[in-house]
Amino acid sequence: MLPDLASRALGGSVRYASDELYGDAHALIAAGPAIHDPAAFGPRGKVYDGWETRRRREPGTDFVIVALAAVVTGVIIDTTHFRGNFPPFASVAATTLLGYPTASQLLAAPWESLIDRAKLDGDSANLLAAPAPPSGAAARLATHVRLTIDPDGGVARFRVHGEVVPDPRLLGGRVDLAAPANVLAPGRAAAMSDGWETARRRDDGNDWLVVELAAPGLLHDVVIDTSRFVGNAPGWAKLTDDRTGALLRPRTPLLPDTEQ
Hints:
By secondary structure, the protein is mainly beta.
């Protein structure tokens, strides 16, 4: 599955929410799974790890706008722990506004439907695919997506999967063309589980990883970070062009627990 580009860990952010009476919309893009304490109650009722709006007494819907930069291929509308108060339907739309638009500009922007009104299940990870563009048509870049729940309710997490589309105006000089993914994610590893680890080999072979870059570029250097891998770091590594087989970096010794 392609990476979740709405995740706060990769720079996603909530730009607007129509209502947050019961639950903070920023929880939608938290990196981890939703947690739940059946005994947790606050001044407004049951405490959930997710976004929850007030019960509607009039026609209408609630929505939240999330910033990212991607060609969206699908979303997960995760209603985990929301059993009697999940929204029965949801839809997703996208717009393209480069730069840093304000909330009022986003509200006034033209929005194009990505996923039409779809039925949701409670306490479930609802996976919804975005239709591919017509044959010959260019893929649609989305800088912001709008999740609309119909009519109201709670959503634990909102994942937006797609292909990274960097804004070339912001790249400047050198940029990491390989991020994101677990072993490729920006920042330093907080624990060994943040990286890539293979089974112990008892033969004379080796393991490898193929990385598709976000955009064409002239490669200057590579960082191989064995941080947190103390007794199980690889002894050597090399880098090749997967298309041509050209050697980009020869077999090089590596140190454990070191950014090199």
